């Protein structure tokens, strides 16, 4: 089945130690998104790629970076994680960026910063 | 700024006890309103998209409705497997405008 796969499911890191989360998709969708969701809160968009075009949200901290080496893969790099970065990180895809396209989400990576 | 408020934050129902979840929104021209279901420890799963006031969509025990200010997700005769967090999101008109999510309603259906 076509899907969005995130690895790892759980990640524990130490304060200030860089961490990379990965996402792959078999849907061949043009757009890939990274969301941050803290406990009992709304998912918050960090950035998205439309093909190779990177779009950063205005309030996304500089600490967060992303790479999309090809259509199928996208990475979230957190350069110096702080305690406040503990959250579920969700990767999502959509076919286009027209606005009325539903998002397909992965199962998320639960990141704990100690 | 687009805003989405969902109520209640949490809802406990007995199996078979119908109810409604509310999503109030403020957006500068609605392009679409989305409902997603999120199970614990998983990513959201798409349920419905509504585009204009008066529109309704149904799927099994769920029915979503839309007015100019809010959307309701009606759950008829729920079962324990309907237990999940239900997220509402809006998208405003304009290119490259992304979804704004609400914080969800956590629904628990007791057997």
Structure, described:
The complex is a heterodimer of chains A (114) and B (111). Chain A has 114 residues and is mostly beta strands. Chain A contains no helices and 11 strands. In chain A, strand 4 and strand 5 form a beta hairpin. Chain A is globular. Chain B has 111 residues and is an all-beta fold. The termini of chain B are far apart. The model of chain B has no long low-confidence stretch (mean pLDDT 94).
Give the SSE layout.
The complex is a heterodimer of chains A (114) and B (111).
Chain A: E1 4-7, E2 10-13, E3 19-25, E4 31-37, E5 44-50, E6 53-56, E7 64-67, E8 73-78, E9 87-94, E10 104-105, E11 109-113
Parallel strand pairs in A: 2-11
Antiparallel strand pairs in A: 1-3, 3-8, 4-5, 4-9, 5-6, 7-8, 9-10, 9-11
Chain B: E1 3-7, E2 10-14, E3 19-26, E4 30-38, E5 45-50, E6 56-59, E7 62-66, E8 70-75, E9 84-92, E10 100-101, E11 105-110
Parallel strand pairs in B: 2-11
Antiparallel strand pairs in B: 1-3, 3-8, 4-5, 4-9, 6-7, 7-8, 9-10, 9-11
Descriptive terms for the model:
heterodimer, A: 51% strand, globular, B: 111 residues, mainly beta, five-stranded antiparallel beta sheet
Assembly type of the shown chains? Answer: heterodimer
Net shape of chain A: globular
H and E string of chain B: EEEEEEEEEEE
Q: Tally the helices of chain B.
A: 0
What is the straight-line distance between the termini of chain B?
A: 41 Å
Overall outline of chain B: globular
Number of strands of chain B: 11
Sheet bearing the most strands of chain B, described?
A: 6 strands, mixed
Radius of gyration of chain B: 14 Å
Rg from alpha-carbon coordinates of chain A: 13 Å
The residue fraction in helices of chain A comes out at under 10%
N/C terminus separation of chain A: 36 Å
The description of the largest β-sheet of chain A is: 7 strands, mixed
Total helix count of chain A? 0
Strand residues, percent of chain A: over 45%
Number of strands of chain A: 11
How would you state the average pLDDT of chain B, rounded?
A: 94
């Amino acid at each position: 089945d076509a899907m969005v796969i995130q690895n790892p499911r759980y990640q524990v890191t130490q304060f200030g130690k860089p961490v990379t989360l990965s996402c792959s998709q078999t849907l061949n969708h043009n757009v890939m998104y990274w969301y941050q969701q803290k406990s009992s809160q709304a998912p918050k968009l960090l950035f998205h790629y439309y093909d190779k075009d990177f779009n950063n949200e205005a309030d996304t901290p500089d600490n967060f970076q992303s790479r999309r080496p090809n259509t199928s893969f996208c990475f979230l790099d957190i350069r110096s994680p702080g305690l406040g970065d503990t959250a579920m990180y969700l990767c999502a895809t959509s076919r286009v960026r027209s606005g009325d396209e539903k998002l397909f989400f992965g199962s998320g990576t639960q990141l704990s910063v100690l | 700024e687009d805003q989405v408020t969902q109520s209640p934050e949490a809802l406990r129902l007995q199996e078979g006890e119908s109810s409604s979840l509310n999503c109030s929104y403020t957006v500068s021209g609605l392009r679409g309103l989305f409902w997603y279901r999120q199970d614990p420890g998983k990513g959201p799963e798409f349920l419905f998209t509504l585009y204009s006031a008066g529109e309704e969509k149904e799927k099994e025990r769920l029915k979503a409705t839309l007015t100019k200010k809010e959307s309701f997700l009606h759950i008829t005769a729920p079962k324990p497997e309907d237990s999940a967090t239900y997220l509402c999101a809006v998208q405003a008109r304009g290119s490259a405008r992304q979804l704004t999510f609400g914080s969800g309603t956590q629904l628990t259906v007791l057997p």
